[in-house]
Amino acid sequence: MALQPSEGDPGTGQSDHLPPTPLIIPEIQLPFAAAPPRSDSEPLRTQALAWAQRYGLIGRRGAHRLSTTALLELGVALCARAPTPRAEILVCWYLWALTLDDRIDDGPWAENGALDRFIIAVQALTESGDADPSGEISRFDDPMLVVLADDLWPRTQCLGGDHWRHRLVQHLIQHLRAQATLVRLREADRSLTLAEYLPLRRDSFGALFFFDLIDAAETLDPYEHPAHTEWWSTLREHAADMIAWTNDIHSIAKDVVCGERFNLVSILANTRGIGWPAALESAHQMVNTAVAQFTVVAARHANQRRTAATDPDRLSQVVRAAADWHRSVSRYHLQTTDASAQDNRQVDLKLTPPTLKSRQFEIDPYPLYERLRTTLPIVYDEPTDVWLVSRHVDVKAVLTQPGVSNNNYSWQIGPLLGHTIVTMDGCEHAQHRALLSPAFRSQALVALEASITSVTTDLLAHMHGRSQVDLIADFTAALPVRVMARALGLPAQTLEEVERLKRWCAVGFAYMGNYRQDPALLTGGLSNRDSFYDFIQPHIDARRAEPSDDLISQLLAARIDGQPLSETFVRSYCAILMTAGSETSHGALANLIVNLLSEPGVKEAVMANPDLMDNALTETLRRNPPLQLVLREARESLQLPSGTIPAGATLACLIGSANRDPDQFIDPDTFNMSRTEQATSHFAFGAGRHFCLGSMLARMEITISARMLLQTFPNMRWAPGFTPTERGFLNRCPEQLEVVL
Question: Containing H/E element for 385?
Fold first, then answer.
């Protein structure tokens, strides 16, 4: 039975509206010859990857991903007959565009006008060489602008003459503006008619821009003779449409599951009132029509005096290369079963997993978790190259098995801080953990408790006399930063000092959780680390000369195998303790406050019996953990209760899902402070050998501050018209907590 549009928008990605039978992706047979393979394809790939890493477009994980998959194959195929130096520029452009497309598709970066500002900078740079005449975007804030200004555009602009350069820039800006238009339409939740979509799709894919690059790379100018302008432009438009529509057909599974509504197949289903199979066939027919139109236009001008520049085979080979790439590249084949054991054209959307790159994980991941636990408990997420583990029994097995390592942190945090306790395993990890543990146990906690009380008292005092406050800005974000700064011996009294530390911690935490591999975080994290290290170095030097009772002094005095910690270790441990000790504690405290004020009877019960605050926090950590997942790496093939993980795989342990597994917790979505034997089996602090070192400090910090908050402002309630909303995935909590005191 075909899904009719009345049953739900084909682009919603909700499992309730997925077709009950598998879809058959049409076999797109193009009557075009393939271009001959290039002998320098491997050096082209290697050079492009080194270039992208050098400028911060990709990190270690991105480079590995691109070097072990076919994602760069299309970029190499576009080079056609271009000499190697010019082909290198074209492949770099392809990688730049691929990075930008993923950045736009995968997350919030492009929203709220950010992409429009980026386009202004690109246009100014390519037209005048000034990356940002308005000052709205510093040319050094975004690595994609930096590489464009410092390398890519200077190498590109000399490939052709003024007319070619003008056409190239025009098509580049058209490409970017079309993408920005689609972003705005998504934000406004607007639909598109087919007539509106088609020109937007042609421009948003960027084929016309790459046709210009190919012309210059091959040192050919098809527009040299005015008589060729109209028919060659028409030919290029047909070629661009074939490529874009082929992409939509192969993207249908990915787009539907990710909630992407702007796909030719989805729009045909909605606007024509037809089901999925008919919409797929209609899209296929549109491709065939474009092929026929291309062939007719090419034949009509066969008798004209042609040059190498106006040979239709040049365009048809690019179209064929794009079709072959879409048919083979893994990002368009997201089925859970082994592709070699099934028809690669058959797509069952119920067996197509949601990807961590989907914005829905940041907005509301819990329906996705339920679908994963029920249907796909262990499944490969191709776009992020990780295995999603969603059931409680499987997450527990991963976090406690000896065959699982922390080697994933070698790319998550290694480029930033080097080899630290978070990347260690085995005896080395045990030694360093034993070194740090005393700072968060027994007598050390007594001193930390006094600090927590002092900082909380000060923050509450600043709220007195105010009728309404935002507890995120005025309480939850500042508290753990100030407590950890005091423990380390760093200044955090003034608003400026606290804000600076908060900013450093937020960027460092975001770098560690950069699953989307956003270039701004890759480069911003490194500069953020350097400024933090510059800040703490005088304090390290001072404690070396005159030790105190703070953590920096303890780190300097520590010995492993009789040797002191290196300066690199001391600095990195300061960064880890500062960041880990602030971001998730802030999120947990914020989520606890939401439950105290929103769950019926909870606030009153805790005020009547302050000891219940521990129960309220435990249930908050279970139901609303701020950290929704942790990654691990399989040293060997893992046999988990729900399936097998291959050796070498990266695993995403979905804590937020495991903590709401109905097989472990009765009525798991309900906040229930009375849970007893089940209460401590949540994974908000992890499990096994890497159980959170600062868990006791975090619990003490959150419960003390929350008790004091309620005692000081017993009538506290939500501000009129305000409703707290959880957001985020790396650190999931409300962005604001507007309360009346």
Answer: none
